Amino acid sequence: MTSFGGNKTNPNTLTRELMQRLVERTGVGPDVRPGGITIDSSVYSSTAPALVLDESPAGGIFRTTFGPAWYESLEAFPDSSLIVVTVNLGNDTIQFARDEIQAAIEHIGWKRIRAFELGNEPDHYPGGSRPPQWSSSDYTAQYLGWTAFLSRNLSLPSHIFQAGGFVDTWSTKDIIDEGVDTTGSVKLFAQHTYQYSTCDPARNTIATLPNLVNHQNITAYLSQWKLQVAAAKSVGKEFVVGEYNSVSCSGKENVTNTFGQALWLADTILFAGSMDISRMYLHQGATLVLQSSQQANTPGFSWYDLWYPVPTDRYGSARASPSFVAYLLIAETIGSSNQSHIALLPSISSHPQFAAYAVWDPATRASDVARLVLLNLATRIITSTEEEKEAIAVTVDLSPYVRENQHATMKRMTALGLDSTDSRTATWAGQSYENGTASGVEVIESLDEGKVTVQGSEGVLVFF
């Protein structure tokens, strides 16, 4: 966090610029959820410096101590960015959680706090911190006990906790059935998703670009969470993906650091939106030494990070990744109303890797599409021939969507190819964002007699 945010004296200007590009398009900054696995071995101390990491001889972090100066890192993010405050549940010591909540209230302030969350992925707690039979019902009982105490002790408002945060062993429906939402403390529910992994050789083998950038794979994977979304909605709560990325254990070189990751993000986020998932928190960070004894990655910033916040030997200069342009497409798709509706349109049988999402705004008539996203996930790589490119390009006639006297324009998300790792050639509307600001001349296209052609490994956003 201190690398991505910096501090009051030296804020991370790259982070600040990239976040401002999103604010310009939506009116607000993105939510931030600091923490992850290290929060469950963390201690807040009012006398500590920003961050102290205690490492084992093997290089694993077994304790993280943070002080008031740590919160300065959040100042690199927009004032409108809300914070999900995750606190230590893993150490099974409620005083740690209490101190961290109190510190967040003091240093972040209620205006910016979205919710509090107890622990990170408690369904994956190691045997040393919980008994072997640790179950979702045990979590539910502890959640109810801790939230009751913390709410009384710190005079917390009702409906302030984000419950769950599981990976794959337990579910939102499990804890709802066990009574987690009976005391008025739950604001929303969260689970984590990682479609692929490099945590072990078997999963590393299938974490490939063709598997990742595949519309059927993306929709089939996310559809597994429909039951959990429905469970949350049944008790009047939002469901969010509290942490996600494409390949767990910090991504994969030449897969998640490519433009292909941008296409995966665009299709993943838009399909999740069509499923009524409210928000998705994209994991940023670095490889954890002891996360898996079989993982493929070595220490360093993750291969899937949306941007590399500081210069490193592995990645060179601080810069945005090729995938950052996906968030510009998403931001302009969502817009600033905070009330847009999205739907995945029926597929084209002859082009199974082509996806179309329609967006309606509250200010438009119910029958009028405000924006249309067209994603062509068919593989186009840097060395594809002109014949290969032509074979996978898709031309769509949008004349039926264009009303009389209406002018439709479009912006294009593209790169040299799916496998490109060069941020300078990954563009949104003709501009790249390697240094956080737009480089190049913005290109806003018009429809060609109502038609638009989308090349393989490319995305287009049409504005009506």
From TrEMBL:
<dbReference type="InterPro" id="IPR052974">
    <property type="entry name" value="GH79_Enzymes"/>
</dbReference>
<dbReference type="Pfam" id="PF16862">
    <property type="entry name" value="Glyco_hydro_79C"/>
</dbReference>
<protein>
    <recommendedName>
        <fullName>Beta-glucuronidase C-terminal domain-containing protein</fullName>
    </recommendedName>
</protein>
<feature type="domain" description="Beta-glucuronidase C-terminal">
    <location>
        <begin position="356"/>
        <end position="461"/>
    </location>
</feature>
<dbReference type="InterPro" id="IPR031728">
    <property type="entry name" value="GlcAase_C"/>
</dbReference>
<dbReference type="InterPro" id="IPR017853">
    <property type="entry name" value="GH"/>
</dbReference>
